[in-house]
Each structure stands twice: as C-alpha cells, then as structure tokens.
Amino acid sequence: MSIRCLIVDDNESFLGVARELLEQEGLDVAGVASTTSDALRQVQLLRPNVVLVDIFLGDESGIDLARRLTEDGLTEAATVILISTHAETDVADLIASSPAAGFVPKADLSASAIRRIVNGRVG
Per-residue DSSP letters for 66-118? Predict the structure, then answer.
C-alpha cells in the first residue's frame, strides 16, 4: 500500500527535515500544515491516508486536532499518528486519551515506524 501523508507541526524546520526524510524512505508527503485550520483544509484538499500530528501544536492542541479528524469523519480512510519531541512515557496519558492509531517520537520518525502503525491498524 502506498502511503500518502500530511505532516502537521508548528516547527517549520522540523517540517522540512521530516518531509525530506520520509520522502527519501519512499513515502509520498502530500503536504504540510502548521495550524489546526490549515491541517483541516489540507486534509480535505489532499486526502492523505496518514496524518502525522504534533501533540503540542504551538498554542493549539494536537490531541484536539486528532479528535476532530477522527470524530468528524474527515479521515475515514486515514490513519492519524501522533508525534512529539517528548518521550512516550512523558505523554502517555495524552496518547491514551486520543483517538490516534499510534505514536512516534520525532527522534524515531521513519517510514518503517509509520508503516508498522498503519499495518497494525489495517491488519
């Protein structure tokens, strides 16, 4: 299955690095967004099958965005994956309260980490 993703993060330098890394590893990065409103617009426009969402999205909440994406039916065919610079143990409560399919620390971001979550959701 081809993975077409949208990366949502308020850090512009991370967006560039993550896009380059994931594209080098064979994923199609359809776009990037840095705010909730931009992410919602991009999801409707680009129809990605994976949405990577930073838990701490500047002044906004990535958890709230993940909830909107899944509960509003905007990502019926997409897997929402949370990302963060924080260790999983530090944000475990937030991850558990979210409707996201999984979590990847930014330091461990890779196409294989994303594929493992997507395949776990599908399989």
Answer: HHHHHHTTTTTT-EEEEEESS-GGGSHHHHHHS--SEEEEGGG--HHHHHHHH
CA distance 95 to 93: 5
Could you give the CA distance from residue 109 to residue 22 in angstroms, rounded to a whole number? 8
Task: Enter the pTM of the model.
Answer: 0.94
For 47, half-sphere exposure in the C-beta direction (CA atoms, 13 angstrom radius) is 1
Work out how many domains the chain is built from and give that number. Answer: 1
Q: What angle do CA 10, 16, 19 make, to 5 degrees?
A: 105
pLDDT tens string 84-102: 999 999 999 999 999 999 9
Residue 44 is part of which domain span? 4-122
Tokens of 79: 């897997």
Q: Which CATH number does the domain housing residue 80 bear?
A: 3.40.50.2300
Q: Which DSSP state fits 8?
A: E
Question: What count of Cα atoms within 13 Å lies in the side-chain half-sphere of residue 119?
Answer: 8
